[in-house]
Amino acid sequence: MYRDVDGSEGYIGKFLTTYAKMKYGPGPDNVYTVINELKQQQKKNYENSGRMELVKFTDVSFFSFLDYIVSGNRLFAAFGLGAKTPPTFHEAHEFHLELSAAIAAASDAPLSIVIVGIGHGEFSQLLKLAAKRKEGTRSCLQFITISDILEAGDSPAENRSRIAQKALRAIPEQMADFMHAANIAAKPPIQVCRSPLFHSSSLIPDRPTQFVFDGALPQCLTPQMPRSDRRGSDSRAF
Which residues form the Copine C-terminal domain (predicted)? Predict the structure, then answer.
């Protein structure tokens, strides 16, 4: 595609390549002829519409929300209005006087804010607050109203699940947006080593698997069965 000074756009042509070929970088193997199929059919002497030469190749890993959380997480205690915080455990009713400015400032922080409206009051100002953010920053605020989510015919468990789904649905995208903007790569996932106590598929009737504890994890030692015993023609025991 091309775009002229006046803003008009047009189709130049196309070429085919592969990721495996382009990752070798600039060179004669990454110079391609651009072909416009329509011109090729209409013009007998048509050769090409130019050449495309690769001048730089950068392999960028794009991490998802799951890529970040499978490497582990850390929980931080958060307290809201009326919370009883240690060590005095008195109810705290302080709130930020400049809420709008605080939320706008949080757009630059690794933080997501969820505001839940309870009751049938007027929430238009909160809706405007949720839509407001500093220019060029990510969205970090999610606002929901309980009255719009609850279903009279559903059980309390179903309503709680629906509230959690609505309240948390924007957080994965918000977190990934912050990580990408800050150029933070995901760490390798935590490797979970499962005990062979729960993964022995070679148990033989009347010949229990033996376990030898060597260090932190047990080792599974399965008795070797004579060839004749596997066929059922020999009933010798170990």
Answer: 100-185
Each residue of 192-225: pLDDT tens digit? 555 554 444 444 444 444 444 444 444 444 445 5
37's CB contacts (< 8 A; 6+ apart) are 13, 14
Q: Measured between alpha carbons, how far is 98 from 105 in angstroms, rounded to an integer?
A: 11
Q: What is the pLDDT of residues 31-41, one digit of tens each?
A: 999 998 888 88
Alpha carbon distance 185, 176 (integer Å): 10
Q: What is the dihedral of CA 58, 59, 60, 63, to 10 degrees?
A: 180
Closest by CA to 220, choosing from 235, 193, 234, 201, is 201
Question: How far apart are the C-alpha atoms of 79 and 141, rounded to whole Å?
Answer: 17
Handedness of CA 127, 131, 133, 139 (dihedral sign): positive
- The span from the first CA to the last CA of the chain, in angstroms, equals 77
